[in-house]
Amino acid sequence: MRRLAAAAVILLIASSLFAQEVPNPFTAQGARPREGFFHAVTSGVTAFLATAMAPVQQSLNESLAAITRSLQGSRSLGGLLFVVLISLAYGMFHAAGPGHGKTIVSSYFLANNAKIRHSVAIGYLIAAVHSLAALSIVLVLYYLIRGIFSANIEVANHWIQLVTFAVIAVLGAFMLVGRIRGRHHHLHLHAHEPDEERGSAPGITMKSLVGIAVPAGVIPCPGAVAVTLFALSLNMLAVSVLSVVSISVGMGITISVTGAIVILAKQGALRAAAGHGERGSRLRRVVEVGGAALMFLFGLVFFLAQL
Amino acid sequence: MRRLRFTVLLGLLAAALPAAAHPHVFISNRMTVTFDQGMLQGIGFQWTFDPMFSAMILGDYDPGHTGRFDASRAAALKAGAFDNLVNYHYFIALWVGGKPVRKPVMEKFTPSVADKGRLVYQFFVPLKVPLATEEQTVLLTVYDDSYYVAFDILRAQDVTVQSGPQVSCDLAVQKTRVKAEWPGQYMPDQLVIRFKETPS
Fold first, then answer.
1. Is residue B97 part of a domain?
2. How many domains does chain B divide into?
3. Which range marks the domain in which residue A113 is found?
4. Residues from chain A contacting residue B10 (CB–CB below 8 Å)
5. What mean pLDDT is predicted for residues A204-221?
6. How far apart are CA A304 and CA A79, in angstroms?
7. N or C: which end of chain A has fewer CB within 10 A?
8. DSSP H or E stretch at residue B156
């Protein structure tokens, strides 16, 4: 059973490494399909879900467009409610797909002493960060910068991702160094006080949660950009704000739930291993160092992919 | 123990989530198989886009909402929102007589606007396969394996055949049968075009 728990965590780590935001093949000049081993594994893993989810997303996309258009004539409360609900569902679905937000949050929670309330808090924070980021990027490109929106958004995305992944790699590197040092520290203490419940990781503060929510939420989801732009193209600023906020809340919910699952899995595995003496504390160290290493590697791999 | 089993299951579920689909552009694809002058001339494609991608591209290349593209606008659109697909082989994989067509050629690109502001791309992929009295086969998939673009489900009834009196052509949809490059590789459905010359 413990082996299964370990397998689940390893699978999470492996699959999140393949989570990627690819450019729009139509409008991102120079974009190419990804090739090689990573892509091969991703394709194999994602194909089934890809085909299963696409029709659902398509019908959400179509309904949202139809309702937004119908609101152009008359602003009914029911119609606005529909926009909110469908945007929410859209955001939840989109965040379930490959995206870096879940990976950062998961690896952060693996590396730290996280509680369920932290995953709830990070959901709110990501919703706020993503709303602000997606909205301001679309508004600036739409109203202030002249030119081809569909080309500019791809360029903007490229730079935002480059900077964000660099930040993630640096955060991960600091965390990794901290955990490896903490490990030695812990081992040293261990001789004096054999306290299995104490982790090597420090507690989570609101400040550190914000520090994670910003890189996890700042890259605008292409779906949110599409929805916002669609409402703007119909001259409906208020509706576009409403739907981008709802989408972001939906994303926050999915990321929050993923984070909670990771925390529960970690706690479950550690609890099962507790009472096995040295093995329990070793597992905790492996999970925590592994989480930090995951964040570092993830940031580095995707930073290099953006170059 | 039951609790642990539950958390393990949750962990596996979390592991599967990042692998879920992420399409952002949805395309309804219609095809026309054209025979003329004793040859399979090629295949025409008509892609109708979802409302949101349509709105973005039309906002950029038809800002006045005229619903029409003159030559210069069509050229700008082609350069900005189609030509890059050459890197993706236009999402088209073709096999003629069992041999893959490595780089499909595209011609006659024509953008237009259908009802309710939907962007439509039409283009033609020439094949020029001479007809013979024995049956020949062309296989075709239209699929984006980066998952950015989702095409609707391939159905034989969405494919039109334009042929003369001396051509017999059968269409079918089947699971792709080429050898997978890696275990578990996803194989999209394949359009099978079987055709031969029938003496009059």
1. yes
2. 1
3. 2-306
4. 261, 264-265
5. 88
6. 44
7. C
8. none
Torsion angles phi and psi, residue A27, rounded to 5 = -115, -15
pLDDT digits (tens, 9 = 90+) for A72-109: 877 788 888 988 998 898 888 777 766 668 888 888 98
pLDDT tens for residues B103-116? 889 999 999 999 87
Report if residue B11 sits inside a domain.
no
CB contact under 8 A, A12 and B184: no
**Residue B19 is nearest to which of A25, A31, A46, comparing CB atoms?**
A46
pLDDT tens, position by position, A138-150 = 999 998 887 899 8
Check A233 against B8: CB less than 8 A apart. no
- The model scores a pTM over 0.90: no
**Is the pLDDT confidence value at A190 over 50?**
no
| Kind plus residue range of the DSSP H or E element containing B132 | none
Q: How far is it, in rounded angstroms, from Cα A123 to Cα A248? A: 9
Residue B7 belongs to some domain of the structure:
no
Provide the number of structural domains found in chain A.
1
How buried is B25 (Cβ within 10 angstroms: 0-12 exposed, 13-18 middle, 19+ buried)?
buried
* B131 within a domain of the structure (yes/no): yes
pLDDT, greater one: A192 or A305: A305
Determine contact: A151 vs chain B, CB below 8 A.
yes
Reference A127, options A213, A210, A223, A249; nearest CA is A249
Residue ranges in chain B assigned as alpha helix (H): 2-16, 51-61, 71-81
A contacts of B3 (beta carbons < 8 Å): 268
- Give B29's strand partners: B47
- Would you say residue B23 has pLDDT above 50? yes
Q: How confident is the model at residue A51 (pLDDT cuts 50, 70, 90)?
A: low
Q: How many CB pairs lie under 8 A apart between chains A and B? A: 219
Amino acid identity of B154? L
Instruction: Residue B100: give its domain's CATH number.
Output: 2.70.170
pLDDT at B12: 53
Lowest mean pLDDT among A37-51, A82-96, B120-134: A37-51
Q: Is the pLDDT of residue A217 over 70?
A: yes
Query: Residue B60: which domain range?
Result: 20-197
- Side-chain half-sphere exposure of A84, counting CA atoms within 13 A: 8
